[in-house]
Amino acid sequence: MAEQQHQPARERKPLRILVVGAGIAGPAFVLSLSRFFGVFQELNIKMEITIIEHRDVVEGEGDKKGKRSWFRNAGQQIDIRGQGIEAMRLMGIEEKVRERRVDEPGVVFLDGRGVEGVRFGEKSGGSEQDGGRKGEKKGEKKGLSTEWEIMRGDLLSILYSATVDLPNVSYKFGTSISSLVSSPACASVVFSDGNKDEYDLVVGADGVGSQVRKLIFSDAKTMWYPVGQSLAFFTIPAQAGDRKEMTICNLPGRKSMVTRQDKEDCLRVFFSFAGKDEKLKEVLRGGSVEEQKREWARIFGGDNWQAVRFVEGMLQNGKEGETWDDFYTQELAQIRASTWADGGNKKVVLLGDAGYCPSPATGMGTTLALVGGWVLAGEIASAVVSRDGNVEEGIKRYEEQLRPLVKQIQGMPVGLVYKIIMPSSDMGIRALHFALRMGKMLRVGKMVGWVVDRVEARWGWKLPVYEDGRVDV
Ligand SMILES: Cc1cc2nc3c(=O)[nH]c(=O)nc-3n(C[C@H](O)[C@H](O)[C@H](O)COP(=O)(O)OP(=O)(O)OC[C@H]3O[C@@H](n4cnc5c(N)ncnc54)[C@H](O)[C@@H]3O)c2cc1C
Hints:
By secondary structure, the chain is an alpha/beta fold. Helix content is 35%, strand content 23%.
């Protein structure tokens, strides 16, 4: 794009932006947009940004202003990969993320009796020079966990702290929207508390189950593509003997119990199920937490390895007097929308999982949330600076820029991978562990790491760099 001459704008009303969802994508967008606040000020462009989040806050602990600790129990490890790392650097949060990165010493596969099938990634005394992998045999862990792995709550906290004190940015917790109507002039919103307001732009960053998506697209249901796997995450108290490695216990029926330990006092557990179960599907699509837990307990009940402890821990999670209240379950799905905006009005736009969830099975959801936030902010800023406050062109360019990357990521063969790593029978599990042992001996992990690097490089999608509201691709 040709360089724009910045002209001070005439005095006008502030541009009002509502961001729905204070997960990863929403605050990443606001943080990215703040990189342009200097230029906006120079040009006398005013903005008012409100971020609403339907989860409420727990007062008393936590970070910075207002002692918000709603991110304390907010999910488990998430990965930042490829262009997401670059986006995080450009947003200026790389050091903060590095400080709170989770360092896992390896991965262990067990069978249903808890007998070790194979172990990867023993420490070999590496250094910070290898990109921070700290002792991992280079390439071996790639594909299962990465060097930029962080607890979701820690990333929320970093993004929140970086945005909460920004001028003209305000957060509202415990708030959602109940109605959203867009017109060529504005987006009119009715909030869950009955208040009404109008915005120049509404950003739907409210995750895979997005309310904004449902309100602006009459065919939102057709955008939901299940990938054939469901997950339940929760935290339980640690006990002696818990492993620091990511531990995957494979069970017949395409089930696995996975544990990870980022802190001494607790163990992160997730159940993964890639079989068919109509009752589970039904409760995941609309049941209460109690019903969901009951179905997970039915599927994972039994005396396999530590199933009794994990099921009990899941049922206790969130109960009165318990430390951990973070049960989170999902039927994994991709969101495939043919457009991310509200038709020609372009007053509402979807961001992150809300518009293009690739499913956690790809390990790329957080990456797309960060990259999406960066690109949307860059394009909006460019449009505002060069078009006298008009955001429509920015939304159009955001879609054009990001779609090729989303297409590549959503095209990953996640269903096939899960068929391979979650066998249906005991014999399949023995075959998987044997294949992994062979792979380890033949250093296949290194090869896989090499292939993943090549594939990521071949995608060749370059993160646009935006300087002062001008695009430099
Ligand atoms: C509680 C929770 C735990 C998670 N745990 C994991 C995990 O352990 N591992 C993993 O890989 N991924 C996890 N994810 C998903 C992961 O964070 C996302 O896939 C990814 O980071 C993309 O980020 P996002 O901001 O687009 O969506 P999300 O991170 O899902 O953020 C969406 C935000 O919008 C809020 N929201 C939803 N509906 C409304 C509404 N109607 N009004 C206002 N706010 C709303 C949500 O509470 C959330 O804060 C979790 C998501 C959530 C919400």
